[in-house]
């Protein structure tokens, strides 16, 4: 599977169906009820520009216990599903899906959670909240001004004194 994903860019848009067929072939090696297979298929549709086809696959993968089988892929599925929901005009669902992830155990996906949540919020006209999330995610990566940026991020969403 990793090898197939490493070659995704070898498939231009007109050959995207070939990439999805490759993923389907690899998924066929898994048990029929595997949430991992649904996740991989969702990713393939999503990565080839078909958020509409990815959404139900991500949802089914999560319903079938993807987060229990692989907590990391479960979190990825929530991030990617929220992005796809936003792409199909359902940003509010994306916000509901990702908001609990802000307090989930921390991992390398924390910034992606905040970035996708910020996009969903922006799609709903909640730009200040989105900007606050993005600045808060960016602050620890700056060589200087971490404290200032973190304070500015909080000030965007806290009521004025």
Helix/strand layout:
Elements: H1 2-6, H2 16-27, H3 35-47, H4 51-63, H5 66-69, H6 71-87, H7 91-98, H8 110-123, H9 127-138, H10 146-157
How would you portray this structure in words?
With 161 residues, the chain is mainly α. Helix content is 68%, strand content 0%.
What count of helical segments does DSSP give?
Answer: 10
The helix/strand class is mainly alpha
Number of strands: 0
Q: Give the DSSP E fraction (strand runs of 2 or more residues).
A: under 5%
Q: Low-confidence parts, pLDDT < 50 over ≥5 residues? A: none
Please, what is the average pLDDT?
Answer: 95
State the helical fraction: 55-70%
Give the end-to-end Cα distance, rounded to a whole number of Å: 53 Å
Q: Largest sheet, if any?
A: none
Order of helices and strands: HHHHHHHHHH
Radius of gyration: 18 Å
Shape: elongated
């Amino acid at each position: 599977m990793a090898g197939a994903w490493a070659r995704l860019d070898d498939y231009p848009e007109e050959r995207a169906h070939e990439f999805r067929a490759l993923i389907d072939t690899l998924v066929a090696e898994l048990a029929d009820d595997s949430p991992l297979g649904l996740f991989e298929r969702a990713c393939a549709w999503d990565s080839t520009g078909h958020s509409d086809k990815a959404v139900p696959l991500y949802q089914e993968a999560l319903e079938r216990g993807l987060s229990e089988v692989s907590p990391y892929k479960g979190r990825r599925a929530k991030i990617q599903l929220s992005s796809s929901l936003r792409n199909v005009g359902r940003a509010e669902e994306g916000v509901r899906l990702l908001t609990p992830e802000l307090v989930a155990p921390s991992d390398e996906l924390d910034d992606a959670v905040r970035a996708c949540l910020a996009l969903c919020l922006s799609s709903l006209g909640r730009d200040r909240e989105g900007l606050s999330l993005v600045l808060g995610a960016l602050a620890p990566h700056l060589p200087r001004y971490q404290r200032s940026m973190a304070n500015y991020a909080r000030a965007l969403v806290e009521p004025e004194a």
